[in-house]
Design brief:
The complex is a heterodimer of chains A (61) and B (142). Chain A is built from two helices and no strands. With 61 residues, chain A is mainly α. The chains are: A mainly alpha (61), B mainly alpha (142).
Amino acid sequence: MPKIALTHLETAILFALLISVVLGVVTKKTDKDRLQYGLYCFACFVGTIFGLGWLMKLGHG
Amino acid sequence: MADKSVAAALNPKKSVPIMKWVTPIIIGWLVPGGGHIYQGRMQRGLLVGIATIICFVFGLLMRGAFFEPQTGDLLTTLIYTGGNVANKMVGIPYFLATWLGYNQADVAGHVHDYGTKFLAGAGMLNVLSLVDAYEIATGQKD
């Protein structure tokens, strides 16, 4: 079985994408709401990833 | 008699026959997304099923470790026993991986660590889809 080595960013974005798909599907009642909520969750995850990333970079000086 | 019908109307969950929701829950646990597909929600079942399986497969490809149940202090019990339950919640993919001999030791390294989280996360995603399948079965959701 091959082994893959993703970077922190790639892994976090992949994880965010998969969670957003499931959250979008299970939490809303119409397809439009599901798509919107999935995109919203993904945007929040990616925003948090970059926000915390910059915070850690600035914190390290 | 009237009291029973009022109670059933106020609490519809109690009036749902157990087999109506147990079957999709068991199918959904064994096959991610299966609970939705069994209830005729093909598109949603495929979406949650594929997302869960991709998460699980990436966990395997990153050589994540399955949690072994451990007891001790509260945090250790919570993490290792909870992680073991989360691993098992993926259903057949988990049992297939262990049956085929996947046995990664818990070693240091960020890729292994992410893999371990992907494997447990896949189980948690399946739990979310099981809750949704239950709500569909009991008529709380379309």
